[in-house]
Structures are given as structure tokens and as C-alpha cells.
Write a structure and sequence with these properties.
About 40% of the residues lie in helices and about 40% in strands. It is α+β, with helices and mostly antiparallel strands and about 90 residues long. It has a 4-stranded antiparallel beta sheet with strand order 2-3-1-4, covered by helices on one side. The chain is elongated, with a radius of gyration of 13 Å.
Amino acid sequence: MLVGVCSIKIVMYEVNSLKGKRQILKSMIERIKARFNVSIAEVGDQDKWQIAEIGFCCVTNSRRHADEMINTVIGFIEKDGRLDITECEVEIL
């Protein structure tokens, strides 16, 4: 069994409040949960309104599959025009 873990720091330039940040993150997290079979949550910078840290993971039996899943989710996040990825850390355990 292998676990693929990814931590992503993002910036949302057009957000003016924590409420706006929560709307964007909740929408994105729910779409990722529905589309991909991963566990995902906001894991850091919860009190800052333009910065967020998101963590997600997948469990699989193949390193190649874990890499594909993580890269697919990262690509999905990158395509969202409301935010930019500033830092990305991937680990396969």
C-alpha cells in the first residue's frame, strides 16, 4: 500500500474577506472530492484571507498511479482562474 500526499499553498488575489476565501475553497474542495477519489482539506493559513494551504492524499498500490492522481488534481487546481499555486510539495509514502 502506498499513500500519495500533496500540500499546496495558494494565493487568491481577488478575495476581500475570509467569507470570499471560504466560498472559493469550499467550491473547489467539493468539486475535487466529487471528481477524484482523494481526501482533501484546508490545512493551514486559515486566518489569512488571500492565502490558503490545502492538503490532499490518495491511497493506492502503485507509485505510478499515485503520481498520476496527484498530478491530475494539481492540474485541475491550476486551471481554476480564481487562484494561483505558489508552492507545491509532494511525497509518496
